[in-house]
Each structure stands twice: as C-alpha cells, then as structure tokens.
Amino acid sequence: MLKGSFPVEKFGGLRTPFYYYDLRLLRRTLETIRSCTEAIPEFKVHYAVKANANPVLLAEIAAGGLGADCVSGGEIRAAVEAGFRPGDIVYAGVGKSDAEILLALETGISRFNVESAAELEVISELAAAAGKKAPVSLRINPDIGAHTHSNITTGLAENKFGINYEQMEDVLRMALELPGVEYKGLHFHIGSQILDMMDFVALCNRVNSLVDELTRAGLPVGDINVGGGLGVSYEHPNLLPVPDFKSYFETFRRHLRLPAGTCVHFELGRSVVAQCGSLISRVLYVKQGTTKQFAVVDGSMTELIRPALYKAYHRIENLSSEGPEEIYDVVGPVCESSDVFLKAAHLNKCSRGDLLAIRSAGAYGEAMASRYNCRPLPEAYYDR
Ligand code: LLP
C-alpha cells in the first residue's frame, strides 16, 4: 500500500493521539498559491483561519504572504498574534457580537463582511460612536448549490448566511447612507470541498450578472470576495498532496469580469492546510467480532470529528506494519456509536501498539477538537 513518508522513529516518546504537521508540504502549498497568483496583482488570497488556528501553522501562512479570513474575535486575536497585518484581515460571521465588532474596529481590520441589514446598522452605530468608519462588504447569498455535502453547502437561498439577493440593492443603498460605514464591495461563498470547477464558473456568472445589475442601477460595486471552497483529494493524499490551485485561479481569471480598479479576494481554508496534517493514533486492541474485526485506537471523534459529523472519508495507513492487508473497522474509545474513523479500512495487519496515520486531517481537525469525555486536547508534532 502506498503510504506517506513519516519520521516514525521520532514518534516513540510522543503521547498519542497527536497531530503530525508536515510544514515543508505547507510551505510548498503556499509557494504554489504564490506562483499561481503573483502575475495577477488584483488577486488577494486570505487564509480561512477556521480551518486550523494552530499558531505554528498560522505563523507559516502569515510569513507565506496570505491575509487572514476570521469569523470571531478570538480568530482576529490569533491572526494578529501570528503576524497577519490588520490591513490584511477580513472578518465574516452571521452573528458578530458588539464586543467582537469593537475589537475588530480597534484592531483596524480591512473588511467587515456583513450578513444582514440589522448587523450593518449595529456596526455603523458602534463605529460612529468611536468616531470611525467601518469598511464593509455585503455578503450576498448567490443561491448556488455546490455539489458537496449538505452540511457544508452555504450558498443556497435557504441558508442562514448572507443577504438575499433581492434585498441587495436596498442594503447597499443603506450602506452608502449610514454614517459609520464605508461601502467597499461584495462577498460570496458557495460551499466547501468543491472539486468541480463548473461550480466556480456558475459563481462567476452569477457575480457578473449582479455586477451588471448594480451598474445599471447606478450603484458602486467595489471589490469582489469570492469566498473559499476549493477541495482536496481525501482519496489520494500521496498522489495529490497539493490541490489544483492552477485550475482554480485560472477559472476566476477567465470567468470573472472585474470592474476596473477593483480586486478579487479569496478565502481558502481546507485547500491550504488539509494535506499537511495527519492524526497519528495508536492501536490499543484488535477486537474480533462475529463478522468483522475492529482496530480500536486511542484517537477519537474528539480529535477529528469529520467522519462522525459528515461521514467524511479520511484515508488511513498503518505506519508500523508491512504485513498482509486485512479489513478493519477503525474505531475510537468515545461512548458514541458514531465514533468510527472508517469502516472496512484496508490496512496492513494491525497489532497492539501500531501507529496509524489518519490522513488529510490538517483542515477542520484540530480546530474542531473538543474535550468530550474529559479527553485532553490533542498535541502536535511539527516536521520542519
Ligand atoms: N469563507 C467563508 C465565508 C466560509 O464560510 C468558509 C468555510 C470559508 C471561507 C473556507 O472554506 P474552505 O476553503 O475551507 O472550503 N467543518 C467543515 C467545513 C466548514 C466550512 C465552513 N465555511 C468540514 O470539516 O468539512
């Protein structure tokens, strides 16, 4: 079985489960993003901090030249601490609290992505009271469904996110009039783990027609933020360690008609960090059932909840064995029947003490870890 290369000899003294981060792969990924966008100065790439806010990764990403896309006051703080410049931080979220809005104003972030007329009024009030003008973009719901899991599709009309597109002109006029805000542009996001570039073409076409509408109505457009969503290969992390950024950026270059003097902002999360992370877990027991066998491991849904929450597939490799392949259900110790990493996994023969790598876990893994069952939060090992 094709496996990733892991410095297993260094894992001996580490307490499992832990996150293994390949920082060289992360740098290679950042370098690819840079090389795909350096010739297009109007493309500004932000990293969606929600995918993984580990400070070591954040510092690499800031040093790699990306801006930050934050969804809470905590993420804004983490981004600034990691070295992102406030002028490169955008802030989205359907429920920004007053304290978070004030923190963002104080920090001097570059953009509030506003999700409702009600929020726009509050931001204006708070900013005006502080003698400031908050830079705002309006998050418009483009009513486009990406072909991905229903829990991670965000651009459909019935989602909680964004301003309905029928209300766009009214809210934009409001933004132009309110004293505490300065209108800067439009924001969109259609979903996550998108591999079909036609979904992004559909987004571009929708944005182009909205821009035409606004222009006809004599309204300004400003910058366009197209959100994130580029997917990764969960099936073949060894063959496709770096996502297809070339096709992704090329799609927007070809299909988005940019008004003169404006920029396109991207908010990529998963595609930046997924492949550089693996959850390393130890086999505790091989348990024989009546019709199948289980590899019971010490990692669980509290370190990586994606399989339990979305039925997401993560490839698993046995790093300690070259024995013949056998079929196992790989399960964790948490008292939930959904605490299963993978059913019918093909693994080299497992024995107690073997180390398993659960791959492509750098995005929405550590960031979504919990302390359920009073389990400790996972630690991390960095391959520099
Ligand atoms: N921008 C906005 C407004 C978003 O809502 C998201 C993700 C992103 C950017 C980054 O999207 P990405 O490039 O990572 O696809 N926990 C789920 C994914 C939730 C995504 C939420 N929004 C998972 O584990 O699959």
Describe this structure in words.
The protein has helices at 23-37, 55-63, 73-82, 98-107, 117-129, 168-177, 197-216, 245-255, 270-273, 306-310; strands at 18-22, 43-48, 67-70, 89-91, 111-114, 134-139, 181-187, 223-225, 264-268, 277-288, 293-297, 316-318, 325-331, 340-348, 355-358, 379-383. By secondary structure, it is of the alpha/beta class. A hairpin with an 8-residue loop joins strand 13 (325-331) and strand 14. It binds ligand LLP.
Low-confidence segments, given as residue ranges, are: none
**Portion in helices:** 25-40%
- What small molecules are bound in this structure? ligand LLP
Q: Could you spell the SSE succession in H and E letters?
A: EHEHEHEHEHEHEHEHEHEEHEEEEE
Main sheet: strands, sense, barrel: 8 strands, mixed
Specify the overall morphology: elongated
The amount of beta strand, in percent, is 15-25%
Descriptors:
8-stranded mixed beta sheet; single chain; 8-stranded parallel β-barrel; alpha/beta; 16 strands; 384 residues; elongated; binds ligand LLP; 10 helices
Summarize the helices and strands and which ones pair or pack.
Elements: E1 18-22, H1 23-37, E2 43-48, H2 55-63, E3 67-70, H3 73-82, E4 89-91, H4 98-107, E5 111-114, H5 117-129, E6 134-139, H6 168-177, E7 181-187, H7 197-216, E8 223-225, H8 245-255, E9 264-268, H9 270-273, E10 277-288, E11 293-297, H10 306-310, E12 316-318, E13 325-331, E14 340-348, E15 355-358, E16 379-383
Helix pairs in contact: 1-8, 2-3, 4-5, 7-8
The structure holds ligand LLP.
